[in-house]
């Protein structure tokens, strides 16, 4: 997936073609919290012009602060296993 967590394209890095089915835009993005914790984010839905929900890979426990994802504040809501979480609007 995203190899360098310091690189931050707004919508992310292109996935290999055979993995495009996993992402609404064939990309994986690096998203951050206010206190700069990072996660890899694979969107399941993208809003126009802003917004998203989708899957995130976290290193460790979910942070207390929400992730800023394409104009929305998203929180981990369902643990999917192996570090993967479902992110949706907080609250």
Describe this structure in words.
This protein has about 90 residues and is mainly beta. It has one domain (about 15-90). It is built from no helices and seven strands. It has strands at about 15, 25-35, 40-45, 50-55, 65-70, 70-80, 85-90. The chain has a six-stranded antiparallel β-barrel. The protein starts with 12 loop residues before the first strand and ends with a strand. The mean pLDDT is about 90.
Describe the structure concisely for a colleague.
The chain is mainly beta and 91 residues long. The protein has one domain (13-89).
Question: Helix and strand layout, with pairings?
Answer:
Blueprint: E1 13-14, E2 27-33, E3 38-46, E4 52-57, E5 67-69, E6 72-81, E7 84-89
Antiparallel strand pairs: 1-2, 2-3, 2-5, 3-4, 4-7, 5-6, 6-7
Please name the defining characteristics of this protein.
91 residues
Number of strands: 7
What is the percent of helical residues? under 10%
The biggest beta sheet is recorded as: 6 strands, antiparallel, barrel
Q: Kindly give the count of domains.
A: 1
Strand order of the largest sheet: 2-3-4-7-6-5
Please tally the helical runs, counting DSSP H or I stretches of 4 or more residues.
0
| Assembly level | single chain
Task: Give the DSSP E fraction (strand runs of 2 or more residues).
Answer: over 45%
Unreliable stretches covering 5 or more consecutive residues: none
